Amino acid sequence: MIRTLVVDDDFRVADLHRLYTEQVGGFEVVGIARTGHEALDLAARFQPDLVLLDIYLPDMSGIDVLRRLREQRRPLDVITITAARDVATLRAAMHGGSVHYLIKPFTFTVFRERLESYAAVASRLGQVAEASQGEVDRMYGLLRPGGEQELPKGLSAATRDLVIDTLRAAAQPLSAVQVASAAGMARVTARRYLDHLAGTGVVELSLHYGAPGRPEHRYMLAGRT
């Protein structure tokens, strides 16, 4: 589980982000802070993996919180969630190592995509001891909406998203046949998209040993538990 600290001065917004986070598989909220000092205290106490950090806090800027966290060398990641649209704040967040910058207001779908992309990268990092340039490119690509910038010739974003949504709705890893049936497409089409998503790290592949014969490939979104 990815231990998450929510930081927002508005208790209603903080609670909404908590609810959002708890609806994404693989995440748990370990605390909610409504000031910068409380965020620093809870980060020290709970040692979260991820902080969802607002910029406009009553006692200090979220950017100052981010800088303090980096000065303390805490091994955590930050997703900035804010209404701030100015380039200076964006640049400061980027310099501080924020992995995403999410502008309010946003939908749950957008929020979920950002958390799932972060979880996919975290999972990928835990599987490799040394990364090639291709591996690095794939991990950075995962942080982009949709998982990558371009699709191979013959693949469409709409069908890719349908396959991803089918896996997201499943309670357990699915075979290509199961994905095809649930998504209403041919097995060969589902397999092509699944192989592409597995190659880019969006989807994880496992082998299922059931009846005698060749093991069956099963697929699930990266970072899901």
Q: How would you briefly describe this protein structure?
A:
By secondary structure, the protein is of the alpha/beta class. It is built from nine helices and seven strands. A hairpin with a 7-residue loop joins strand 6 (203-208) and strand 7.
Describe this structure in words.
This protein is of the alpha/beta class. It folds into 2 domains: 2-106, Response regulator (Rossmann fold); 118-221, Arc Repressor Mutant, subunit A (Orthogonal Bundle). Helix content is 46%, strand content 17%. It has 9 helices and 7 strands. It is elongated. The termini are close together.
CATH architecture of the largest domain: 3-Layer(aba) Sandwich
* β-sheet strand percentage: 15-25%
CATH class of the largest domain: Alpha Beta
Strand order of the largest sheet: 2-1-3-4-5
Q: How does the helix and strand content classify structurally?
A: alpha/beta
Q: Count the strands?
A: 7
User: Which residues sit in consecutive blocks of at least 5 with pLDDT less than 50?
Assistant: none
Largest sheet: 5 strands, parallel
Estimated radius of gyration: 19 Å
Q: How far apart lie the N and C ends?
A: 8 Å
CATH topology value of the largest domain: Rossmann fold
SSE topology:
Layout lengths: L1 E6 L3 H12 L4 E7 L2 H11 L3 E4 L8 H10 L5 E6 L4 H9 L4 E4 L4 H18 L7 H10 L14 H13 L6 H8 L3 H13 L3 E6 L7 E6 L4
Parallel strand pairs: 1-2, 1-3, 3-4, 4-5
Antiparallel strand pairs: 6-7
Helix pairs in contact: 2-3, 7-8, 8-9
